[in-house]
Amino acid sequence: MTAPLLQATGLSAGYGQAMVLRDVDIEVAPGQVAVVLGANGAGKTTLMRALAGLLPFSGELLVDGRAVRNSRPDKMVGHGVSLVPQGRGTMSALSVVDNLRAGAVSRRDKAVVEEDIERWFTTFPRLAERHAQPAGTLSGGEQQMLAIARALMSRPRLLLCDEISLGLAPRIVQELFETIAQINVEMGTALLLVEQNAALAMKIASYVYLLEVGEVVESGAARDFEQSESIRRVYLGY
Amino acid sequence: MDIFLTRLFAGMTAGSIYAMIALTLVIVFRSSATINFAQGEFALFTTYVSWWLTERGWNIWVTLIPAVVIGFVLCAAAERFLVRPVRRRDEAAVLIVGLALFTGLNGLSGTIWGSDDKVYPRLVPVSVDSFLEIAGARLFYDSLFVMGALVVVVGGLTLLMSRTNLGLQMRAVATNQESAGLCGIKVGRVFMISWGLAGAIGAVAAAILVPILPPGQLGLPGMFHMLIFGTVAAILGGLDSIKGAVVGGLSLGVGLAMINGYGSGLGGSISLTVALVVVVAVLGLRPSGLFGSKRLERV
Ligand SMILES: Nc1ncnc2c1ncn2[C@@H]1O[C@H](COP(=O)(O)OP(=O)(O)O)[C@@H](O)[C@H]1O
Ligand SMILES: [Mg+2]
To answer: What percent of chain B has pLDDT over 70?
Structure first.
């Protein structure tokens, strides 16, 4: 068993007085694909925001075995953890290519940045066609592509994806999942996905966490979950 | 014709100054969504420093260097050590910090340099014949200089914004702070540098405007008026638009010059009244101003 890339132990977080996440344990190994399943309001977004440094938390968060405290998003990017937030969070007034350049500000190897932009333009040709357009004028699917490409511009070792399927046509969702699965295989980028579209996420995930009202109620290898009758019925709907 | 041109030139001169002040407000607002009401007082302080150095025999142009540096450092420090810790607790309290800075800086200038007006030298000396004659109207060299200064400041800012990594970070923060953070941008650092930049531009603007706008001398209440017109210009142009600050400043300057010139029966305080009408009209009809954002969103 390789040492985990990211390990959260007893993670709790919330908004003001209201605690949303209680005592959550989660870990992701290098190159692994894990998925967090849970109903609306279970606290999936809260978890992702805490991991990305957008939300204060209590408990222990280790990246490469080293403790991360008082986190900020830019620091987490520095640690190699990058978030595609729910609702995409593209910078609407910036052009597509400026969004991608902004995604790379933490990098020192500026010469390679333009190569990476070309690479994601090859992966998402529709972004290349619209490279000079303000991101705010893109369609929902295109914005999601941009959000993913932007998050990858920092060359993260772990990509957090918060419901990238939300509000998109099934064909586009299919495409996006194929793309991130391919990125995982080709670049070894670990993925932590949050999804309501469980069936799709289970296809590429090797490990599953079930989140209910802010707590991890079950976790295990995706293979075992496929075989668990009750879980199949509740979360996968077949 | 020549009287119209004369008024146009006067309006563009004042307008260029309003535009520069509006720019300082816009740069701060774009990053931290705050109107820094103390912006004028920072500039007042640096202009006193500049004056004090000229009294000690420094060339006025050379004194601009420490003035700009102090303007940058003071404003950046105010953001980092006063505004930011307060903002974390309470967004509304930031306004109070602005007011405290306003009175504090004014009081500090008064304590150090006294309340009597100072003669502050012009950056461009004038004599009776230092003007160009255009269609019978006089365009004074120092008017040209003010407009040129605006062109230089705007040109520099445009290059900074469009060509540099810092500019990209500033634009990213202006569009969406949270997303900028997720890109790895140190948002707090961008705030601090933006405030500093505004302080530096304010120092230049004040050094230019003090000798040429009434009362023509350096005094403690000197910046208050200018800040009002700068704020109106910024609101007119759209608080987060650099282009808006320039267009807003120039149209306000020219508009006021025309109204004051052709409507001389309207009384002395007509400028402030017009300015107030402009603010109310903008807020009522088009709250984002002429060039403010919130238009590109396709939610
Ligand atoms: N900004 C917020 N302020 C207060 N409560 C919030 C906020 N965001 C989410 N919540 C609450 O936290 C709970 C979990 O929300 P969230 O993490 O968004 O769930 P999920 O992503 O699983 O749908 C919900 O009960 C929600 O109402
Ligand atoms: Mg959510």
So the answer is: 96
Query: In residues, how long is chain B?
Result: 299
Provide residues of B within 8 Å CB-CB of chain A.
165, 168-169, 171-172, 174-176, 178-187, 293, 296-298
At a CB cut-off of 8 Å and minimum separation 6, what does B112 contact? Answer: B48
Instruction: For residue B124, tell me if it sits in a domain.
Output: yes
CA atoms of A78 and A83, how far apart (whole Å)? 12
Provide the number of structural domains found in chain B. 1
Whether residues B183 and A150 touch (CB distance < 8 A) is answered with yes
pLDDT at B169: 96
* Rounded distance between C-alpha atoms, residue B184 and residue A99, angstroms: 12
> Taking the alpha carbons of B247, B250, B252, B255 in that order, is the dihedral positive or negative?
negative
Q: Please check whether residue B65 lies inside any domain of the structure.
A: yes
ipTM rounded to 2 decimals: 0.93
Does residue B188 fall inside a structural domain? yes
Q: Do A73 and B182 touch (CB under 8 A)?
A: yes
Which pLDDT tens digit goes with each residue over A92-119?
A: 999 999 999 999 998 888 889 999 999 9
Please choose from A12, A15, A55 the residue to mutate so as to test ligand 1's pocket, defined by most ligand atoms within 8 A of CB. A15
Q: A105 and chain B: CB distance < 8 Å anywhere?
A: yes
Tell me if B23 is assigned to some domain.
yes
Domain that holds residue B212: 2-223
Spatial distance between the Cα atoms of B83 and B86, rounded to a whole number of angstroms: 5
